[in-house]
Amino acid sequence: MLCAANGGNNNTAACVTPTQALAINKIWYGMTSDGSVPDPAVDNGTGALTGAHKWYGLMRGTSLLGLASPVPFDIAAHQVALELQNSSIAVPSFKNATGNGQDGWKSLSYAQLSEAFDRGVALQPQFSFIDTDNPDLSAFKARGGKLIHTVGGADTHIPTGGSVNYYERVLAQMGGVSAVQPFYRFFFVPGWGHGSFANGSSNATANPPLLAKGQIYSLLTNWVEKGVAPDTFQVTSRSSSPVAKSLPLCVYPKKITYVNGDLFQAASYTCQ
Predict the structure, then answer these.
(1) What is the distance between the alpha carbons of residues 203 and 256, in angstroms, rounded to a whole number?
(2) Which of 34, 120, 161, 223 has the greatest number of C-beta atoms within 10 Å?
(3) Alpha-carbon distance 200 to 61, whole Å?
(4) Looking at the DSSP assignment, which residues form a beta bridge with residue 270?
């Protein structure tokens, strides 16, 4: 993707400069306390949070149009303004008794963003626990609740790694897979975007196999009313163009694993 003028092989208008590539890598890697980002060949940001790495970014290949555009994702700017108690950081549509937004996010430093992250955690009681990340689901389990948690591998707003992190914390809190899966099951959906049943990747022609509307509701109903817990089920692509695709989804921590055969058919995969 690097422009030929910068030593790359891409001669099209879609090429990126080293500066642009670094910015994209930072978005895909996730937030760090100092703005640093490792070589993706060494660390692509999907593992455990260590060192300066404070939170996950979007999965690599996810479309950046929902975040990296001339108009900011205003909820993010507003939240940082609230965390730092500085309304000027928000966009002009933010109205507050102490002052309105003035696009101060444009000059926000990495140190300020890191401080906002820490203060946001500390201010959870004041924010009505908006993070909703308490891993203790014992009360939910005790009353017979059943939960199916899905996350898109190409969600353009909610980092996939955050969902994995939460489920792992629930497992650690509540006794591991054998204790948690009887009431809470987690599924990863490759290529699924945010808040829709559509391709969320940066490849407009990817046509990934995705959940159908009502599919999770049916699985949950069967689990609650018939005792059939979801383990592996099939998803299909929305279109046959450029090619129809199907894929099995596996209950976490099992992974979709290619065995042999047609790459685009669910029968060629297993859950391991």
Answers:
(1) 21
(2) 161
(3) 9
(4) 257
Share of the chain above pLDDT 90, in %: 89
Q: Give the residue from 25, 59, 49, 12 showing the smallest Cα distance to 201.
A: 59
Place of tokens 């990863």: 188
Tokens of 153: 């591998």
Residue 117 tokens, joined = 């992250």
| The overall pTM is greater than 0.90 | yes
Q: Are 250 and 186 in contact (CB under 8 A)?
A: no
Lowest mean pLDDT among 37-41, 65-69, 77-81, 159-163: 65-69
State the Cα–Cα distance between residues 217 and 211, nearest whole angstrom. Answer: 11
| Euclidean distance between CA atoms 250 and 272, whole angstroms | 8
Task: Tell whether the model's pLDDT for residue 213 goes beyond 70.
Answer: yes
Q: Any idea how long the chain is?
A: 272
Q: Residue 252: pLDDT band by 50, 70, 90 thresholds?
A: very high
Q: Which residues 6+ apart lie within 8 Å of 13 measured at CB?
A: none
Residues β-bridged to residue 128: none
State how far the Cα of 255 lies from the Cα of 216, in Å rounded to an integer.
Answer: 19
The answer to whether residue 195 scores a pLDDT higher than 80 is no
Q: What is the pLDDT of residue 197?
A: 79
Place of tokens 């790495």: 53
Rounded distance between C-alpha atoms, residue 185 and residue 166, angstroms: 12
Helical H runs in 123-159?
A: 138-142
Return the bridge partners of 33, or none: none
Q: What is the pLDDT of residues 50-89, one digit of tens each?
A: 999 999 999 999 998 877 667 788 899 999 999 999 999 9
Distance CA 254, CA 232 (A): 10
Q: How many CB atoms lie within 10 A of CB 172?
A: 11
- Say how far apart CA 56 and CA 71 lie, in whole Å: 22
